[in-house]
Amino acid sequence: MSPKDKPIITSTRNYHDVEDHPEDAKDYNNWTDERSNADLIPNAGKIYLNPAQSWGKGLVADVKRTLGTHWVEEMTNFNHKTVAVSLLLFITVIAPTLTFGAVYGANTGFSIGAVETILATAWTGVFFSIFTGMPMIVVGSTGPVLIMTTVIFEMSKSMDIPFLPFYAWVSVWTFVYTTITAFFDLTRFVKLATRFTDDIFALLIVSIFILNAIGSPFGSGGMLRYMDPSNKSHADLEKELGDKYIYLKSAILSILIGLATTATIFALRALKTSPFLCNQIARDSCSDFSVTVAVIVWTLLKHIAFPTVGVESLKVPDGFEPTYTCCSADCTTFWPDDCTDIAEPAGNRSWFADMFDLNGKNYAIAIAAGPAMLSFILFYLDNGITWHLIYCERNGLQHGDSYNWDLFLNGFCNLINGMLGLPWLVATTVPCIVHLNSLSEKDKDGKVISVHETRLTGLFSHSLVGLSLLFLPTMKLIPMPVLLGVFLFMGLSSIGRIDFWNRFLTFFQQPSMYKKEPFVKYMKMRRYHMYTAFQILFFVGVFMVQNTKAIAIAFPFMTMLCIPGRLWLLPKFFEGWELLLLDGEEEQINEWVQEKERVTTLRIFDDASEEEQEQEQQ
User: Which of 222, 386, 597, 600 has the fewest CB atoms nearer than 10 Å to its CB?
Assistant: First the structure.
């Protein structure tokens, strides 16, 4: 554009006039070339690796920054929200814990089962709540770790070595690796992840929750699956109720109470910003306890209004004892599968693994270092990606992070779990998102104002998980569709906070109705749509790997590939300032926008002054 083609701004406009007449600023934004945008902030959009804090300095710094500074405050800041979020977190944690427990039992020959999964979740969650540096993180079972445990079980069978001792030695080696990594501050590489990676990972996990609640094409669970006559739940209920059971009645009621649970939660949460009820305290209480109230209401309605209609219930173990029951005193065979002629089991396995019961193959101790390396990588990735997603700047957390310290703690807890024959646990993404959202105060636009950073919610909720072992029969009263409704709420309430999802929706929206974001204002439409297309490509790749059983264990590795993709691939297609607007932290974006507006305003005044001088000369 030549100088004579520049947009004309009359000299009578001042700074505030520019704000009141965005069409002029828009003309100038279009006129300003991309090179000037790139010059506003040097090295915009570039990602840098933090300097290493080796030889334990990173560990010490993590402890000082978090526990040493905020521990007392986080252990004493009790309020009514603490109770509400603790109950929500308990419901969020207990159902997947039992589900994973059942799968662990099937995959490990019942060496690990539901009781072991509950016990591991309870004690590890309580321990983490007290000693972690990042109390917003919720630990639990995950799919990749389950698959890794299954691989170790199959490996022990092929070597003719008892599973639990070999599993314990793998846990020892994994703890060695996590300790070395934390000691040399190697967790800093996870911080190379940006919003590009975080959003892909978050959308993946949230979509899994939504699909599993509704009915995933890759699994057998979900509300809509009840319409399938061959669903396993129908066979179990028919066996229990006999001729009185009608599968269609059960399916329709299951779907209705599941969706009704989700709708009830959203309705109660909407009261917080409504004019209903007597005061704001009452509205806040309804919102905070919405999940607990919905679960209780629809559980009671099912048992009171439809007592004769069979509905799948929460599957819980019969008592608190190791899942593995023994045919004989040496406990090398499982009752009753391996000894159908024996009427009663000889007992249960010991809670502690006999680490030197390796069937005379002591070299297995060294061999365990191999699968331990893969297990460590899973711990590193599963934890690191979730930590980065939760403890990024835009979530408004003020008490700092502690990647090195928490990786060390995670390795230690999983060492204990391995020796006890309990499942390994890592950070779980959706419960962490739900935990963070529930403790956040937001403005009308959904931006975080403050977060109630406390250890009490994790402490109370995981204590309830442990206490649930004493009330297992009572928990069987909760219909499974009610919990599926809670999972659906968790997914739907989390997806709106993911920038990737919101940008994906713009493909189907009227451009003039786009949400006012800096990238919308300063970038061409096709440019940010192209960026979203790159994210879709990476997302589809990770999603397909995660849902393909044969290669599902590679899911965290595929997610980690998003980091080099962002570091080295995207800069070949986008300018640094474009990546900053799309992928930077809010503070960086605001700095760029302020500089852009300052430069634009100066140019307006300069051009207006030049025009006045030209008019005077004429």
Answer: 597
